[in-house]
Amino acid sequence: MQITVIGAGGLGAYYAAVLQRSGSSVQLFVTPRHLAPIRDHGIKLTTDSDEASVSPAAVTDQVRDLAQTPIVINTVKTYQLDSSIAATRASLLPDGIVLTLQNGVTSPGRLRAALGDNLVVPGLTGIVSAIESPGHVRQRGPQPFITMGDRPLGEAGASSQKSRIIQELVQRLKEAGVAADATGDITRELWKKFMLICTMSGVGTLCNAQLGEWRDFGPTRELLLQSVREVRAVANAHGIMVTDGDERQIIGQLDRAAAAATASMQRDLMAGHTSELSEQSGAVVRLAAEVGVAVPLHTTITRVLSLHAHRGHV
Ligand SMILES: NC(=O)C1=CN([C@@H]2O[C@H](COP(=O)(O)OP(=O)(O)OC[C@H]3O[C@@H](n4cnc5c(N)ncnc54)[C@H](OP(=O)(O)O)[C@@H]3O)[C@@H](O)[C@H]2O)C=CC1
Ligand SMILES: CC(C)(CO)C(=O)C(=O)O
After folding, report:
1. Cα–chain center distance at 274
2. Can you tell me the ipTM of this complex?
3. Cβ(125) to ligand 1 under 6 A?
4. Contact call for residues 240 and 251 (beta carbons, < 8 A)
5. Which end of the chain has fewer CB atoms at under 10 Å, N or C?
């Protein structure tokens, strides 16, 4: 099966490599700094137990060179989404699908607005992976997973053609060693992950500490609980049925996560890089305003961290 992956960062290089290695034909669209390393040496994939080099079937940084494929996986960061639209459109067959894997809840709608209806399949991934240098990706920890919608965003009944493509992608990911599935309730799953990531990113950066320190200290643990509750309140006010059980599940995941963990947004802000703040706590604030829900903690996080972003570091 032919699959286009947009972006060769932590997610894109990892998924391009494992899909190509397990027999899919991957076309990889990259920014110029990734082109020569991957074209000349393939993707070097380092995991806790293994090291391999995999050459994608095709790699390019030119939209005009892209072939159309039935599946496009968009892995750029949320603040890079607009710049990736031309390549996403050019690499998609008219009856194909685009899978989004960004953290947050806004990417599927943004891509749908740009590309049109019935193409965009929202998804999320559990993985810890990062680029060591262009062409070299390192994945740590347990087996990655991907959960995706069982139909494109906004499509009422699943069209059999699109359902077939989604099931085929799930199968290809499983063959690549990824725990993949498709669900009829992807919006709820996205919001559950949103509760987790906004808390890790927002409270972690505000505290300027590793997860274990602020999670287990009474006063800042209150912020963890408040953050999860605020995001859930926004979800519920938008009609998304995130439950008490979901809330407990997310708090449990935060409690079990490694004490030394930090979110990528925290690391980005600390390093003075562009961050996903506006699509994490910033999006919580915007989405809360739409439904009249008060989110004082995420408002504070957004305001304080935007100062850090403006200054160039935490
Ligand atoms: N990495 C992880 O462990 C996880 C990440 N996520 C989410 O996944 C998303 C991606 O994260 P991650 O992979 O870590 O981010 P990275 O920054 O590592 O990767 C994004 C890549 O996309 C490239 N890119 C940007 N614009 C374009 C474009 N127009 N065309 C082609 N490529 C482009 C970037 O190029 P350049 O390098 O030149 O900037 C970069 O290599 C984020 O939303 C993140 O929150 C979710 C779960 C886990
Ligand atoms: C879940 C987690 C923390 C893993 O990388 C993440 O998505 C991020 O750092 O942005």
Report:
1. 16
2. 0.98
3. yes
4. no
5. N
Starting from the CA of residue 30, give the closest ligand: 1
Q: What is the pLDDT of residue 204?
A: 98
Distance (Å, whole) CA 30 – CA 34? 6
pLDDT given for residue 280 in this prediction: 98
Residue 177 and residue 14 in contact, taking contact as beta carbons nearer than 8 Å: no
The model's pTM is: 0.97
Residue with tokens 């209806």: 117
For ligand 2, whether the C-beta of 18 sits within 6 Å is no
Give 216-253 pLDDT, tens digit per residue: 999 999 999 999 999 999 999 999 999 999 999 999 99
Distance 196 CA to ligand 2 centre (A): 9
* Nearest-angstrom CA–CA distance, 209 and 266: 9
Across the chain, mean pLDDT equals: 96
Both tokens of 52, joined, read 């391999």
The candidate with the shortest Cα–Cα distance to 202, out of 219, 192, 191, 214, is 214
Residue 63 Cα to ligand 2 midpoint, Å, equals: 29
Residue 75 in contact with ligand 2 by CB distance below 6 A: no
Q: What domains are defined for the chain?
A: 2-184 (3.40.50.720), 188-311 (1.10.1040.10)
Residue 154: which pLDDT band, with cuts at 50, 70 and 90?
confident
Ligand 1 midpoint to CA 267 (Å): 14
